[in-house]
Every structure is written in structure tokens, then in C-alpha cells.
């Protein structure tokens, strides 16, 4: 029997309202007059969330709920997230073409259209939905247990896609405005532009694994034999080839992909799937269950902390910028109208062909992945490269302000579709 529409609306609106309230608290305490959650405080809080809270939350939920059987049933989620990035990228290219986006902002537009907030928003909304009496997802405890596993897996997969795809798209876009400097020939010292960018790269907490110690010009020197005369220098083609290999190796940097959240997901996979490890750590009778309980206890701090940080970061958008209104409208239309419609078609098609199991909560999460606002880490990437920071703040402000309405309406539709 279909759940009444009024009950669905109430169940969908309450979680979003909770997100709005906590976010507003973060915005309030970030105001200059209050100055509790200032920029430095948000920076340090973000470090704690990135290195401690999120990995602990992902590990605890995946290890507790994931088994070899459930792993087989969740295979469609990585593909679903990949599809969200592909569709978002195609629609982002259309936004760029229609709005005639400046070259240095094209990576930002592509990132906002393709990368949604696949973790933190779900980690807030799913538990709140499960607690509602009018929820169509059955027993609250079972719903919470499974929902946190789905949200944690979504967060881990989203982080991998974000830092492997969006990061490089925005890096390439921001580097275009630096090409003229590179074409001027050898330089004897750092330019004003490189001196502004380098500290951001070295100080960025979430990309602390980047090697900042090797100047770019030393790549050629490392490719040459040491202690030999110019007559013994290797063939120029060989030197250039080695230089390209080293440049590619430094840009790929697997440590960047293996972020703490990803490592937490890998450990959670291993503990959940491997029987001996699971018997040692998972369950009240497990010898080392205190380690699992401690990780879960730490992970509980992620959700409120992330909400407060998100509210504080949105304050930047009030200062205004040169972001074009048509670009903001284009991103909002892609993320809140076109992408969710594609999501309904894709998930319904997967259900029709028997690719997704019958759990309505799992189907709801898959649909919701198409309707979430842009990933907050896009702001971090824009700060890293020093391109489009003000524009990104305005985009995030409007995107998350409108998300309160969009998520509520789409959640009602999605609940109706899966119930």
C-alpha cells in the first residue's frame, strides 16, 4: 500500500529542516561579530573531520554492516556514482557553451555540475529519515544500520571520483591562465603568481601528501647523469621522456587518491568481508570490540561538525563576486532539475532489468545521489589553485540555499517511487 503523500512530505522535510537549522547555527557563529567559527577555526575543524571523524565513521559503518553477501548486492552503487559524474560533465559542458563561461571558471562549472555532495548530506539526511515514524523504510534501527552503510560507501566512492577527476579538471582549467608565464622562457626566481600558489599547495591539509620540495626546473637536472661532462649527457629525447614520466608520476600521486576516507573504507571492507577479522572486532562478544566501539564513537562527531563547517563556509558567499547569474542558474538547473530526472530514468531502468535488489532504502539512496548539491570540497580545490574562489563561494551559497527546497521535493518523489 502506498504511503500517503502528506506523510512522505513530512518524513522528507524534517531531515532537511534539521540540516538547515544546524547549518544556520554554523553561519551564525561564523559571523564577524560572533567570531567563534572563524576561518582559522574552520580550517582546523576541517582537518579533524578529514583525518579523524570521516575515516572513523566510514570504517565503523562499513565494517559493521558489510559482508560478502551484501557486497555483491551493492555493486551497482559505484556504477551509479560514475554515471552521475558522466551526466553532470556532459550537462556542464552545455552550461559552459550556453553561458560562454570564462576559461578559468570552466573547471569550476564542470566540477559543480558533475560532483555532488555524496557523503555528508546523506550522512545527515538518512539517519533523520529513518527516525521519522512516517518513514516508508520500516524498522528505524535496521534502517539506520543499513542507511549508514550506504551513505558511508557513497562518501568513500565520491571522494575517490572527486579527487581523481574533478581535481584534475580544475587543475587544468586554472593552469590555462598561467601558460603565458611559462612561455616567456626560463626564470631566475619565483613569479608573483607562483609565490601565491605554492604556499596554498603546501599548506592544504587535504592534499598534504603533495611534494612541495622539488622545484619544477629541477626535473631536467634529475634526468641528467651526475658528475659527468656535457659530452656524456643523454640523448635529448631520452631526457624529455624521463621528464614527462616524472611529471606524470607527480601529478597522479596515488597518496592523493588514498585519502583518509578512502583508507577507512578499505579497512572497513576488509574487516567486514574477512570472517576472522570480523569475529575479532565486530559484535558485543568480540575480543576487540572496544576498538570498533571507539571508532563508532569518534565517527558520531562527523555529522554535526560538517554541518557547522558548511554553514561557516557559506558566509563567504554573502560578500558577492563576479560570478555571472546565468552560470549560477545553469548549475542549479543541472543539479536540481535535469540530473534528478536522469536519475529516475536510470534507477528505474536498473530496477526493470533486475540490476538492483529490492531494498527501498538502497533505491532511495541511489536516486538521492542524483539530486544532492555540489560537493563542498570543490571550494577546497578552488582555494588550492587560487582560481574562482569568490565565484565558488557564491555558487555554493545559492546551491545550498536552494537545496533545502529541492531536496525536500525530490525526497518526497523518491520515497513515493520506492515505497
Automatic annotation (TrEMBL):
Keywords: Auxin signaling pathway, Membrane, Transmembrane, Transmembrane helix, Transport. InterPro entries: Mem_transp_PIN-like, PILS1/3/4/5/7. It is found in: Endoplasmic reticulum membrane. It is a multi-pass membrane protein. The keyword Transmembrane applies. The keyword Cell wall biogenesis/degradation does not apply. GO terms for cellular component: endoplasmic reticulum membrane. GO terms for biological process: auxin-activated signaling pathway; endoplasmic reticulum to cytosol auxin transport. The chain crosses the membrane at residues 6-32, 44-62, 74-96, 108-129, 149-170, 257-275, 295-315, 327-355, 361-385, 397-418. Belongs to the auxin efflux carrier (TC 2.A.69.2) family. Involved in cellular auxin homeostasis by regulating auxin metabolism. Regulates intracellular auxin accumulation at the endoplasmic reticulum and thus auxin availability for nuclear auxin signaling. This is Uncharacterized protein.
